[in-house]
């Protein structure tokens, strides 16, 4: 969750949504994202809305404390119940992200989940995920999560090579993420993801292959692999600007992506989104698919973003300001926007093109259809699905996904 917030119109003090946003809500899937903004240290590449203990000291008092965060976030879950009303809609997915959610006690994560269960109800097959730092969990912690209802976990591995982790300022030791997978399996987790990053300055092709091999050897059923994005204002951006480490170029990113596709496919993984692979449909991240398909989700926590029925809003960033608003009985929303039908059409094209199923050609305007025909002739879209009325990226198209989607929405 990037730290910068957009502009927007004010959010009502009670968080009320326009009637249009709630129309037909009972027919739409609902997910919850719970943001835990705490980190033990700040990674050099991270631009997310996160805070270390030092950064919070003196700025939020007791309101910004990790110790009472679960209760504070539960207040927003109760607010969500009031805003969304009494339509019978069980929650389909819950995703706890950060930051480092596992800096909180395992019981706190379970308590937040149970607040959603008590206020809304959970679907019988609900997907319940938390992110985890490999150094912040142990078998007992994982067992508590599993017993409390979590059934999916995502470990931030990033790389298996120590010198790459050092550039990223990651604190875990090589081998620990792989051990965490085994511990999660022993605790009863059905689905385990490993997050990887490629294109770190100083990383070689062999380093990347070693990371992929180590991840696969651990036995997850899901792997996410993202190209490193150097965000302005981060420590890594400053180091690159000073010439301390080199910037990785787009050609290297493309080569690393091809290595990932080849390695993961050979191991029985299929891509279902440009940066995500799973061993089966059951292993796909349903929560992320809510985002990609424009469904409804409530984002609770500082800086968290939400979307319900074409209305998008975002919370104040600072944990102290967030907790203060809730303590005063106000919505922590900082701003919102009501999406037009054209906005929603464009977003569908932007997001659904990245999926294995692609996007219906019926969503494209005349210029976009002309661009799709060019993309087809250039080998960027698959011919079979195109004949059936869908734009689906080829492997080459995935390498150029951002450019392809820009052409289709113009």
TrEMBL record:
Keyword line: 4Fe-4S, Chaperone, Cytoplasm, Heme, Iron, Iron-sulfur, Metal-binding, S-adenosyl-L-methionine
Q: Which SUPFAM superfamilies match?
A: Radical SAM enzymes
Q: Which family does it belong to?
A: Belongs to the anaerobic coproporphyrinogen-III oxidase family. HemW subfamily.
Q: Which gene encodes it?
A: hemW
Q: Where is the Radical SAM core domain?
A: 24-270
Instruction: State the compartments where it is located.
Output: Cytoplasm
This protein is called what?
A: Heme chaperone HemW
Q: Which PROSITE patterns match?
A: RADICAL_SAM (PS51918)
Give the domain of life: Bacteria
Organism listed in the record: Streptomyces plicatus
Q: Does the keyword Cytoplasm apply?
A: yes
Q: What does this protein do?
A: Probably acts as a heme chaperone, transferring heme to an unknown acceptor. Binds one molecule of heme per monomer, possibly covalently. Binds 1 [4Fe-4S] cluster. The cluster is coordinated with 3 cysteines and an exchangeable S-adenosyl-L-methionine.
| Annotated signal sequence range | none
Q: Which InterPro entries match?
A: Coproporphyrinogen-III_oxidase, Elp3/MiaA/NifB-like_rSAM, HemW-like, rSAM, rSAM_horseshoe, rSAM_sf
């Amino acid at each position: 969750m990037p730290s910068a917030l957009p502009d927007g119109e004010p959010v009502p003090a009670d968080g009320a949504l326009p009637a249009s946003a709630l129309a037909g809500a009972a027919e739409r899937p609902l997910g919850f994202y719970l943001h835990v903004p705490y980190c033990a240290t700040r990674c050099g590449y991270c631009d997310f809305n996160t805070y270390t203990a030092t950064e919070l000291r003196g700025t939020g008092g007791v309101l910004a404390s990790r110790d009472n965060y679960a209760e504070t976030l539960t207040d927003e879950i109760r607010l969500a119940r009031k805003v969304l009303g009494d339509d019978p809609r069980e929650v389909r997915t819950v995703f706890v992200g950060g930051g480092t959610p596992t800096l909180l006690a395992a019981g706190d994560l379970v308590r937040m989940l149970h607040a959603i269960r008590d206020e809304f109800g959970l679907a019988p097959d609900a997907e319940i995920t938390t992110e985890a730092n490999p150094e912040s969990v142990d078998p007992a912690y994982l067992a508590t999560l599993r017993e409390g209802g979590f059934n999916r976990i995502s470990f931030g591995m990033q790389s298996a090579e120590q010198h790459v982790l050092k550039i990223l300022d990651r604190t875990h030791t090589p081998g620990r993420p792989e051990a965490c997978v085994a511990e999660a399996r022993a605790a009863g987790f059905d689905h385990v993801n490993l997050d990887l990053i490629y294109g770190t300055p100083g990383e070689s092709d062999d380093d990347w292959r070693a990371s992929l091999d180590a991840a696969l050897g651990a036995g997850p059923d899901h792997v996410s692999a993202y190209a490193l994005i150097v965000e302005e204002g981060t420590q890594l951006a400053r180091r690159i600007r000073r010439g301390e480490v080199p910037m990785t170029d787009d050609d290297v990113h493309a080569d690393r992506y091809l290595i990932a596709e080849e390695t993961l496919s050979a191991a029985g993984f299929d891509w279902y989104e440009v940066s995500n692979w799973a061993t089966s449909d059951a292993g796909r991240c349903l929560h992320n698919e809510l985002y990609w398909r424009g469904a409804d989700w409530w984002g609770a926590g500082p800086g968290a973003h939400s979307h319900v029925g074409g209305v998008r809003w975002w919370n104040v960033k600072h944990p102290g300001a967030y907790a203060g608003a809730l303590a005063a009985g106000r919505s922590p929303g900082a701003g919102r926007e009501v999406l037009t039908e054209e906005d929603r059409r464009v977003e569908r094209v932007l997001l659904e093109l990245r999926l294995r199923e692609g996007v219906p050609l019926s969503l494209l305007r005349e210029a976009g259809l002309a661009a799709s025909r060019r993309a087809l002739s250039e080998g960027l879209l698959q011919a079979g699905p195109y004949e059936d009325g869908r734009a689906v990226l080829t492997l080459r198209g995935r390498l150029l996904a951002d450019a392809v989607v820009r052409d289709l929405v113009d």
